[in-house]
Amino acid sequence: MIPKLNIVPFVSVDHMMKLVLAVGVERFLIELAESIETDFRRWELFDKTPRVASHSREGVIELMPTSDGEVYGFKYVNGHPKNTREGRQTVTAFGVLADVGTGYPVLLTEMTILTALRTAATSAVAAKYLAPKNARTMAIIGNGAQAEFQAMAFKALLGIDKLRLYDIDRTASTKCVRNLAGHGFDMTICSTIEEAMEGAEIVTTVTADKQNATILTDNMVGSGLHINAVGGDCPGKTELHADILKRSDIFVEYPPQTRIEGEIQQLAPDHPVMELWRVIAGQETGRANERQITLFDSVGFAIEDFSALRYVKRQIEQTGLYEELDLLADPDDPRDLFGMLLRAAVAAPTAA
Ligand SMILES: NC(=O)c1ccc[n+]([C@@H]2O[C@H](COP(=O)([O-])OP(=O)(O)OC[C@H]3O[C@@H](n4cnc5c(N)ncnc54)[C@H](O)[C@@H]3O)[C@@H](O)[C@H]2O)c1
Protein backbone atom coordinates (compact mmCIF):
# COMPACT_ATOMS: atom_id res chain seq x y z
CA MET A 1 0.00 0.00 0.00
CA ILE A 2 1.28 3.48 -0.89
CA PRO A 3 1.45 5.47 2.35
CA LYS A 4 -0.64 8.63 2.47
CA LEU A 5 1.86 11.47 2.29
CA ASN A 6 0.01 13.73 4.72
CA ILE A 7 -0.29 11.15 7.47
CA VAL A 8 2.21 10.84 10.31
CA PRO A 9 1.91 8.05 12.89
CA PHE A 10 1.21 9.59 16.31
CA VAL A 11 1.75 7.74 19.58
CA SER A 12 -0.36 9.26 22.37
CA VAL A 13 0.34 8.71 26.07
CA ASP A 14 -2.48 6.17 26.04
CA HIS A 15 -0.95 4.22 23.16
CA MET A 16 2.55 4.43 24.69
CA MET A 17 1.24 2.92 27.93
CA LYS A 18 -0.55 0.16 26.03
CA LEU A 19 2.61 -0.51 24.01
CA VAL A 20 4.90 -0.71 27.05
CA LEU A 21 2.47 -3.01 28.86
CA ALA A 22 1.93 -5.17 25.74
CA VAL A 23 5.69 -5.65 25.34
CA GLY A 24 6.21 -5.92 29.12
CA VAL A 25 8.15 -3.29 31.11
CA GLU A 26 11.28 -5.43 31.61
CA ARG A 27 11.39 -6.67 28.03
CA PHE A 28 10.82 -3.12 26.76
CA LEU A 29 13.75 -1.89 28.89
CA ILE A 30 16.01 -4.74 27.71
CA GLU A 31 15.21 -4.16 24.03
CA LEU A 32 15.51 -0.40 24.42
CA ALA A 33 18.90 -0.89 26.08
CA GLU A 34 19.98 -3.06 23.12
CA SER A 35 18.84 -0.33 20.75
CA ILE A 36 20.84 2.29 22.71
CA GLU A 37 23.95 0.09 22.80
CA THR A 38 23.71 -0.50 19.04
CA ASP A 39 23.60 3.24 18.40
CA PHE A 40 26.41 3.97 20.90
CA ARG A 41 28.59 1.52 18.93
CA ARG A 42 28.10 3.70 15.83
CA TRP A 43 28.41 6.94 17.82
CA GLU A 44 30.87 8.58 15.46
CA LEU A 45 28.51 8.80 12.50
CA PHE A 46 25.84 10.79 14.35
CA ASP A 47 25.46 14.57 14.22
CA LYS A 48 26.16 15.75 17.73
CA THR A 49 25.56 19.03 19.51
CA PRO A 50 24.94 20.00 23.13
CA ARG A 51 21.17 20.37 23.50
CA VAL A 52 19.69 23.82 22.96
CA ALA A 53 18.50 25.00 26.36
CA SER A 54 16.23 27.91 27.21
CA HIS A 55 16.59 28.63 30.91
CA SER A 56 14.14 30.55 33.07
CA ARG A 57 13.82 31.20 36.79
CA GLU A 58 11.62 28.14 37.30
CA GLY A 59 13.10 25.63 34.87
CA VAL A 60 14.42 24.82 31.45
CA ILE A 61 13.02 23.90 28.02
CA GLU A 62 15.39 21.98 25.76
CA LEU A 63 15.58 20.75 22.17
CA MET A 64 17.69 17.67 21.49
CA PRO A 65 18.42 16.97 17.81
CA THR A 66 20.57 14.34 16.11
CA SER A 67 20.81 12.40 12.84
CA ASP A 68 22.56 9.29 11.57
CA GLY A 69 22.45 10.63 8.00
CA GLU A 70 19.32 8.67 7.08
CA VAL A 71 16.97 9.45 9.93
CA TYR A 72 16.69 12.68 11.91
CA GLY A 73 15.25 12.88 15.41
CA PHE A 74 14.62 15.49 18.04
CA LYS A 75 13.05 15.69 21.47
CA TYR A 76 11.36 18.61 23.21
CA VAL A 77 11.82 18.24 26.97
CA ASN A 78 11.37 20.47 30.01
CA GLY A 79 12.64 20.35 33.57
CA HIS A 80 10.64 22.29 36.18
CA PRO A 81 11.26 20.95 39.72
CA LYS A 82 8.50 23.12 41.25
CA ASN A 83 5.86 21.62 38.94
CA THR A 84 4.99 18.69 41.20
CA ARG A 85 3.71 21.15 43.83
CA GLU A 86 1.10 22.24 41.25
CA GLY A 87 0.12 18.72 40.18
CA ARG A 88 2.32 18.77 37.08
CA GLN A 89 5.28 16.59 36.05
CA THR A 90 8.84 17.90 36.57
CA VAL A 91 9.78 16.47 33.16
CA THR A 92 7.53 16.17 30.09
CA ALA A 93 8.58 15.47 26.53
CA PHE A 94 7.56 14.65 22.99
CA GLY A 95 9.65 13.71 19.99
CA VAL A 96 9.80 13.42 16.23
CA LEU A 97 11.59 11.17 13.76
CA ALA A 98 11.99 12.35 10.17
CA ASP A 99 13.27 10.96 6.89
CA VAL A 100 16.46 12.79 5.94
CA GLY A 101 15.80 12.15 2.22
CA THR A 102 12.48 14.03 2.11
CA GLY A 103 12.53 15.94 5.39
CA TYR A 104 9.09 14.50 6.11
CA PRO A 105 8.30 13.49 9.70
CA VAL A 106 7.66 9.76 10.03
CA LEU A 107 6.75 9.63 13.73
CA LEU A 108 5.40 11.98 16.40
CA THR A 109 5.22 10.55 19.89
CA GLU A 110 4.78 11.36 23.52
CA MET A 111 8.13 11.05 25.27
CA THR A 112 7.39 11.68 28.93
CA ILE A 113 7.06 7.98 29.62
CA LEU A 114 9.60 7.16 26.93
CA THR A 115 12.17 9.52 28.50
CA ALA A 116 11.83 7.79 31.86
CA LEU A 117 12.35 4.43 30.12
CA ARG A 118 15.31 5.58 28.02
CA THR A 119 16.99 7.32 30.96
CA ALA A 120 16.68 4.17 33.02
CA ALA A 121 17.82 1.94 30.15
CA THR A 122 20.88 4.15 29.56
CA SER A 123 21.74 4.12 33.27
CA ALA A 124 21.50 0.34 33.35
CA VAL A 125 23.65 -0.01 30.21
CA ALA A 126 26.31 2.18 31.84
CA ALA A 127 26.10 0.14 35.05
CA LYS A 128 26.56 -3.09 33.09
CA TYR A 129 30.07 -1.91 32.26
CA LEU A 130 30.80 0.09 35.43
CA ALA A 131 29.08 -1.44 38.46
CA PRO A 132 30.75 -4.06 40.66
CA LYS A 133 30.22 -7.59 39.37
CA ASN A 134 27.23 -9.40 40.87
CA ALA A 135 25.87 -6.26 42.54
CA ARG A 136 22.45 -6.90 44.11
CA THR A 137 21.73 -3.79 46.19
CA MET A 138 20.97 -0.28 44.97
CA ALA A 139 20.18 2.83 46.96
CA ILE A 140 17.82 5.22 45.21
CA ILE A 141 17.94 8.78 46.52
CA GLY A 142 14.95 10.68 45.16
CA ASN A 143 11.85 8.54 44.69
CA GLY A 144 9.84 10.63 42.22
CA ALA A 145 8.66 9.97 38.68
CA GLN A 146 11.92 8.40 37.42
CA ALA A 147 12.66 6.15 40.38
CA GLU A 148 10.66 2.99 39.59
CA PHE A 149 11.88 3.03 35.99
CA GLN A 150 15.48 3.06 37.26
CA ALA A 151 14.72 0.18 39.61
CA MET A 152 13.08 -1.89 36.87
CA ALA A 153 15.93 -1.30 34.41
CA PHE A 154 18.57 -2.29 36.97
CA LYS A 155 16.62 -5.41 37.77
CA ALA A 156 16.12 -6.34 34.12
CA LEU A 157 19.71 -5.71 33.02
CA LEU A 158 21.78 -6.35 36.15
CA GLY A 159 19.65 -8.46 38.47
CA ILE A 160 19.39 -5.79 41.19
CA ASP A 161 16.77 -7.03 43.63
CA LYS A 162 17.40 -5.10 46.85
CA LEU A 163 16.41 -1.44 46.99
CA ARG A 164 17.16 1.06 49.74
CA LEU A 165 14.94 4.07 49.22
CA TYR A 166 15.28 7.61 50.51
CA ASP A 167 13.38 10.80 49.71
CA ILE A 168 12.91 13.99 51.72
CA ASP A 169 9.20 13.31 51.20
CA ARG A 170 8.48 9.86 52.64
CA THR A 171 5.25 9.57 50.63
CA ALA A 172 7.41 9.40 47.47
CA SER A 173 9.19 6.34 48.91
CA THR A 174 5.94 4.65 49.97
CA LYS A 175 4.61 5.27 46.43
CA CYS A 176 7.71 3.48 45.05
CA VAL A 177 7.21 0.51 47.37
CA ARG A 178 3.54 0.31 46.36
CA ASN A 179 4.32 0.47 42.63
CA LEU A 180 7.19 -2.01 42.75
CA ALA A 181 5.43 -4.56 44.97
CA GLY A 182 5.20 -7.90 43.22
CA HIS A 183 8.21 -7.20 40.98
CA GLY A 184 10.65 -9.27 43.03
CA PHE A 185 12.33 -6.52 45.06
CA ASP A 186 13.29 -6.56 48.70
CA MET A 187 12.70 -2.87 49.58
CA THR A 188 13.63 -0.79 52.63
CA ILE A 189 12.50 2.79 53.17
CA CYS A 190 15.28 4.67 54.93
CA SER A 191 15.19 7.75 57.14
CA THR A 192 18.53 9.19 56.06
CA ILE A 193 20.78 9.02 53.02
CA GLU A 194 23.48 7.41 55.18
CA GLU A 195 21.06 4.62 56.11
CA ALA A 196 20.09 4.15 52.45
CA MET A 197 23.75 3.76 51.49
CA GLU A 198 24.34 0.88 53.95
CA GLY A 199 25.30 -2.20 51.94
CA ALA A 200 24.57 -0.56 48.59
CA GLU A 201 26.93 -1.45 45.72
CA ILE A 202 25.20 1.06 43.44
CA VAL A 203 23.62 4.41 44.31
CA THR A 204 21.24 6.20 41.98
CA THR A 205 20.72 9.88 42.74
CA VAL A 206 17.61 11.13 40.99
CA THR A 207 16.40 14.14 42.93
CA ALA A 208 14.91 17.31 41.50
CA ASP A 209 16.01 20.67 42.84
CA LYS A 210 16.86 23.76 40.85
CA GLN A 211 20.12 24.39 42.62
CA ASN A 212 23.48 22.88 43.47
CA ALA A 213 22.40 20.36 46.09
CA THR A 214 24.72 18.05 48.01
CA ILE A 215 22.82 14.79 48.04
CA LEU A 216 25.98 12.75 48.54
CA THR A 217 28.96 13.94 50.57
CA ASP A 218 32.44 12.48 50.28
CA ASN A 219 32.22 10.44 53.51
CA MET A 220 29.16 8.54 52.23
CA VAL A 221 31.06 7.08 49.28
CA GLY A 222 33.15 3.99 49.99
CA SER A 223 35.54 2.25 47.62
CA GLY A 224 34.03 0.05 44.92
CA LEU A 225 30.75 1.99 44.68
CA HIS A 226 29.09 2.75 41.35
CA ILE A 227 27.29 6.10 41.32
CA ASN A 228 24.50 6.59 38.80
CA ALA A 229 24.01 10.37 39.03
CA VAL A 230 20.85 11.24 37.10
CA GLY A 231 19.31 14.31 38.73
CA GLY A 232 22.10 16.84 38.09
CA ASP A 233 21.45 17.78 34.49
CA CYS A 234 21.46 21.56 34.18
CA PRO A 235 23.86 24.44 34.82
CA GLY A 236 23.69 25.17 38.55
CA LYS A 237 21.85 21.89 39.29
CA THR A 238 24.09 19.16 40.74
CA GLU A 239 23.80 16.43 43.36
CA LEU A 240 27.32 15.37 44.36
CA HIS A 241 29.98 17.07 46.44
CA ALA A 242 32.94 17.94 44.21
CA ASP A 243 35.31 15.86 46.37
CA ILE A 244 33.48 12.69 45.26
CA LEU A 245 34.15 13.56 41.64
CA LYS A 246 37.86 13.90 42.33
CA ARG A 247 37.99 10.32 43.71
CA SER A 248 35.90 8.80 40.93
CA ASP A 249 36.50 7.58 37.41
CA ILE A 250 33.92 9.59 35.50
CA PHE A 251 32.00 8.31 32.48
CA VAL A 252 29.83 10.63 30.41
CA GLU A 253 27.65 10.69 27.31
CA TYR A 254 28.76 13.67 25.21
CA PRO A 255 31.49 15.68 26.99
CA PRO A 256 30.66 19.12 25.47
CA GLN A 257 27.11 18.82 26.86
CA THR A 258 28.04 17.16 30.17
CA ARG A 259 30.66 19.80 30.96
CA ILE A 260 27.83 22.39 30.82
CA GLU A 261 25.11 20.36 32.54
CA GLY A 262 26.54 17.44 34.51
CA GLU A 263 28.23 16.99 37.87
CA ILE A 264 31.53 17.80 36.15
CA GLN A 265 30.46 21.43 35.73
CA GLN A 266 32.01 21.68 39.22
CA LEU A 267 35.43 20.61 37.90
CA ALA A 268 38.07 22.21 35.68
CA PRO A 269 37.06 22.14 31.98
CA ASP A 270 39.94 19.77 31.19
CA HIS A 271 39.30 17.28 34.03
CA PRO A 272 39.64 13.82 32.43
CA VAL A 273 36.42 11.96 31.65
CA MET A 274 35.70 8.84 29.61
CA GLU A 275 33.01 8.72 26.93
CA LEU A 276 30.65 5.83 27.65
CA TRP A 277 30.33 4.90 23.97
CA ARG A 278 34.05 4.04 23.85
CA VAL A 279 33.58 1.53 26.66
CA ILE A 280 30.54 0.00 24.94
CA ALA A 281 32.43 -0.16 21.65
CA GLY A 282 35.27 -2.05 23.41
CA GLN A 283 37.84 0.71 22.87
CA GLU A 284 38.22 1.50 26.58
CA THR A 285 37.85 -0.31 29.88
CA GLY A 286 34.83 0.24 32.11
CA ARG A 287 35.34 -0.94 35.69
CA ALA A 288 38.96 -2.01 36.05
CA ASN A 289 39.06 -3.20 39.67
CA GLU A 290 36.94 -3.83 42.76
CA ARG A 291 38.05 -0.74 44.67
CA GLN A 292 37.50 1.83 41.95
CA ILE A 293 34.67 4.34 42.41
CA THR A 294 32.85 4.69 39.09
CA LEU A 295 30.50 7.55 38.28
CA PHE A 296 28.07 7.73 35.39
CA ASP A 297 27.42 11.47 35.16
CA SER A 298 24.13 11.14 33.27
CA VAL A 299 22.51 14.19 31.71
CA GLY A 300 20.61 12.54 28.85
CA PHE A 301 21.82 12.82 25.27
CA ALA A 302 19.95 13.08 21.95
CA ILE A 303 21.25 9.74 20.60
CA GLU A 304 19.45 7.89 23.43
CA ASP A 305 16.18 9.55 22.39
CA PHE A 306 16.89 8.73 18.76
CA SER A 307 17.36 5.06 19.69
CA ALA A 308 14.12 5.15 21.69
CA LEU A 309 12.19 6.79 18.86
CA ARG A 310 13.38 4.19 16.36
CA TYR A 311 12.58 1.38 18.75
CA VAL A 312 9.04 2.73 19.21
CA LYS A 313 8.61 3.13 15.45
CA ARG A 314 9.44 -0.56 14.95
CA GLN A 315 7.08 -1.55 17.74
CA ILE A 316 4.08 0.42 16.48
CA GLU A 317 4.53 -1.04 13.00
CA GLN A 318 4.10 -4.48 14.56
CA THR A 319 1.31 -3.62 16.99
CA GLY A 320 -0.66 -0.86 15.25
CA LEU A 321 -0.71 1.07 18.52
CA TYR A 322 -0.84 4.56 17.00
CA GLU A 323 -3.18 7.05 15.39
CA GLU A 324 -2.93 8.58 11.96
CA LEU A 325 -2.26 12.29 12.31
CA ASP A 326 -3.11 14.68 9.47
CA LEU A 327 0.07 16.66 10.06
CA LEU A 328 1.41 17.58 6.62
CA ALA A 329 -0.33 19.66 3.96
CA ASP A 330 -0.51 17.60 0.78
CA PRO A 331 -2.02 19.46 -2.21
CA ASP A 332 -2.50 17.44 -5.43
CA ASP A 333 -0.16 19.92 -7.13
CA PRO A 334 2.69 20.47 -4.63
CA ARG A 335 2.93 24.15 -5.66
CA ASP A 336 -0.78 24.80 -5.21
CA LEU A 337 -0.82 25.15 -1.44
CA PHE A 338 -2.98 28.28 -1.58
CA GLY A 339 -5.43 26.61 -3.98
CA MET A 340 -5.83 23.75 -1.51
CA LEU A 341 -6.66 26.29 1.20
CA LEU A 342 -9.30 27.97 -1.02
CA ARG A 343 -10.89 24.65 -1.92
CA ALA A 344 -11.24 23.86 1.78
CA ALA A 345 -13.49 26.95 2.12
CA VAL A 346 -15.96 25.29 -0.26
CA ALA A 347 -15.85 22.09 1.77
CA ALA A 348 -16.21 23.90 5.13
CA PRO A 349 -18.07 27.26 4.84
CA THR A 350 -16.81 29.98 7.23
CA ALA A 351 -18.74 30.58 10.41
CA ALA A 352 -21.22 33.46 10.33
N1 LIG B 1 19.90 12.44 33.27
C1 LIG B 1 18.80 12.28 32.58
O1 LIG B 1 18.81 11.77 31.46
C2 LIG B 1 17.49 12.68 33.19
C3 LIG B 1 16.30 12.28 32.59
C4 LIG B 1 15.11 12.59 33.23
C5 LIG B 1 15.12 13.32 34.40
N2 LIG B 1 16.30 13.73 34.93
C6 LIG B 1 16.34 14.49 36.18
O2 LIG B 1 16.03 13.59 37.23
C7 LIG B 1 15.50 14.32 38.33
C8 LIG B 1 14.29 13.60 38.87
O3 LIG B 1 13.25 13.63 37.93
P1 LIG B 1 11.79 13.15 38.32
O4 LIG B 1 10.98 13.25 37.08
O5 LIG B 1 11.87 11.87 39.06
O6 LIG B 1 11.39 14.33 39.34
P2 LIG B 1 10.28 14.30 40.49
O7 LIG B 1 10.05 15.74 40.84
O8 LIG B 1 9.13 13.46 40.09
O9 LIG B 1 11.01 13.55 41.71
C9 LIG B 1 12.11 14.08 42.39
C10 LIG B 1 12.12 13.56 43.82
O10 LIG B 1 13.31 14.03 44.44
C11 LIG B 1 12.97 14.30 45.80
N3 LIG B 1 14.00 15.17 46.37
C12 LIG B 1 14.23 16.49 46.12
N4 LIG B 1 15.28 16.92 46.87
C13 LIG B 1 15.71 15.85 47.56
C14 LIG B 1 16.78 15.63 48.48
N5 LIG B 1 17.57 16.64 48.85
N6 LIG B 1 16.97 14.39 49.00
C15 LIG B 1 16.15 13.36 48.63
N7 LIG B 1 15.12 13.50 47.77
C16 LIG B 1 14.91 14.73 47.24
C17 LIG B 1 11.59 14.91 45.71
O11 LIG B 1 10.91 14.86 46.96
C18 LIG B 1 10.94 14.05 44.64
O12 LIG B 1 10.25 12.93 45.19
C19 LIG B 1 15.19 15.72 37.81
O13 LIG B 1 16.19 16.58 38.30
C20 LIG B 1 15.29 15.57 36.31
O14 LIG B 1 15.69 16.77 35.68
C21 LIG B 1 17.48 13.42 34.36
UniProtKB/TrEMBL annotation:
The record's keywords, sorted A to Z, are:
Lyase
Q: Which InterPro entries has this protein been placed in? A: NAD(P)-bd_dom_sf, ODC_Mu_crystall, ODC_N
Gene Ontology MF terms? ornithine cyclodeaminase activity
Q: List the Pfam families.
A: OCD_Mu_crystall
Q: What is its EC number?
A: 4.3.1.12
The answer on whether this UniProt entry bears the keyword Lyase reads yes
SUPFAM superfamilies for this protein = NAD(P)-binding Rossmann-fold domains
* Family indicated by similarity: Belongs to the ornithine cyclodeaminase/mu-crystallin family.
This chain's protein is named: Ornithine cyclodeaminase
Naturally occurring in which organism (per UniProt): Microvirga vignae
